[in-house]
Design goal:
Layout: H1 7-14, H2 18-32, E1 37-47, H3 76-89, E2 93-98, H4 105-120, E3 124-128, H5 134-143, E4 147-149, H6 156-162, H7 168-180, E5 184-186, E6 189-191, H8 197-209, E7 216-221, H9 238-251, E8 256-259, H10 263-276, E9 281-283, H11 296-306, E10 309-310
Parallel strand pairs: 1-2, 1-9, 1-10, 2-3, 3-4, 4-5, 6-7, 7-8, 8-9
The chain binds S-adenosylmethionine (SAM), 6-(5-methyl-2-OXO-imidazolidin-4-yl)-hexanoic acid (DTB) and iron/sulfur cluster.
Length: 334
């Protein structure tokens, strides 16, 4: 019987003593994965800056003075050069991001050519282009896109404090379009934006409640970028980040849980705890989209010290059958 992960139940998980939570997470992790195996995704910003959305955390929003200039969509050749370099460095998946509210028809013509080119290099493909109409999702799926990344970011209750230019339901509708088109879903969120533990539980409840839940779940620690409204967000207790990873592992047992943005700043010790808590994927490469990431050499050294190994591109593993259209479910505190 599948259990419903309510915010109450997840909040109780997040409040466990760390050794108890880690033990539960490790048991779930080992039941579904080789605990030494870590999947590597490299990121490339194929269209940087000038985004009309007002996401408070984001250096690419045109609402914030962050010094990130708006650029045009990158040429196919340059994308392929970057993708080949990522493959040569050992990445299995190439994730391409565009700072759009949503792609236009002419953008889709170009990005489908990019998907085909990157796939031909033998990499798994992922894109994150903002909201997607069902027809655009189908075109991306037809071009061979393996994953679409679109994050819920936080709980429905806290969401309006972070973004005002699109709704939680808009995001759920995009996830539904992605799923209906037959692509795998990459969806997670951010910790450290001043949200409560209840909000973290609320985010995981939404993610775990998707039917099926996402195959790939990026857990980002906020990167505080100067000029964004969250530049001075309060420090995140790194153990709370570990707790979030563990709770994601327990509530979404077969998902790849990705230790995502902000991991360089977490340091080697906390990253090691995240792998022990069930993280089994990372963003790999010296940059995220516009900010810096852990250096490739540092990651290689860390994997060697911990005895971890990177996985070959994984066969398609789905977390269930296509879902009904999700709608925002607000849970009352009990
Ligand atoms: N524009 C597309 C969208 O929002 O769907 C794709 C790119 S957007 C940068 C992808 C995700 O990166 C966001 O949903 C957010 O979760 C994460 N992100 C952006 N800026 C971040 C930051 N400063 N720290 C941590 N995560 C961040
Ligand atoms: C995700 O969850 N994190 C990535 C990816 N999906 C696209 C992006 C992180 C961005 C961090 C800040 C920056 O460099 O723009
Ligand atoms: Fe735009 Fe995505 Fe950044 Fe939001 S997170 S401002 S949608 S690029």
């Amino acid at each position: 019987m599948t259990q419903t992960w309510t915010p109450d139940r997840i909040e109780a998980l997040l409040g466990l003593p760390l050794p108890e939570l880690m033990w539960q997470a490790q048991q779930v992790h080992r039941a579904h994965f080789d605990p030494l195996d870590v999947q590597l995704s490299s990121l490339l910003s194929i269209k940087t800056g000038g985004c009309p959305e007002d996401c408070s955390y984001c250096p690419q929003s045109s609402h914030h003075a962050t010094g990130v200039d708006a650029d045009k969509l990158m040429d196919l050749d340059l994308v392929l050069t970057n993708a080949q370099a990522a493959k040569d460095a050992g990445a299995g998946r190439f994730c391409m991001g565009a700072a759009w509210r949503e792609p236009k028809d002419r953008d889709i013509d170009k990005v489908t050519a990019i998907v085909a080119g990157v796939k031909a290099l033998g990499l798994e493909t992922c894109m994150t282009l903002g909201m997607l109409k069902p027809e655009h999702a189908r075109r991306l799926a037809d071009a061979g896109l393996d994953y679409y990344n679109h994050n819920l970011d936080t709980s429905p209750e806290f969401y309006g404090d972070i973004i005002t230019t699109r709704t939680y339901q808009d995001r759920l509708d995009t996830l539904y379009a992605v799923r209906a088109a037959g692509m795998q879903v990459c969806c997670g969120g951010i910790v450290g934006m001043g949200e409560s533990v209840r909000d973290r539980a609320g985010l995981l409840a939404q993610l775990a409640g998707l039917d099926p839940y996402p195959e790939s779940v990026p857990i980002n620690a906020l990167v505080r970028v100067g000029g964004t409204p969250l530049e001075h967000a309060p420090d995140l207790d790194p153990f709370d980040f570990v707790r979030m990873v563990a709770a994601a592992r327990i509530t979404m047992p077969r998902a790849r849980v990705r230790l995502s943005a902000g991991r360089r700043e977490l340091g080697d010790g906390i990253q090691a705890l995240c792998f022990l808590a069930g993280a089994n994927s990372i963003f790999y490469g010296d940059t995220l989209l516009v900010t810096g990431n852990a250096e490739v050499d540092a990651d290689r050294a860390l994997f060697a010290r911990l005895g971890l190994r990177s996985s070959a591109p994984s066969p398609r593993v789905e977390c269930g059958t296509p879902m009904a259209r999700p709608t925002v479910r607000l849970h009352q505190a009990s």
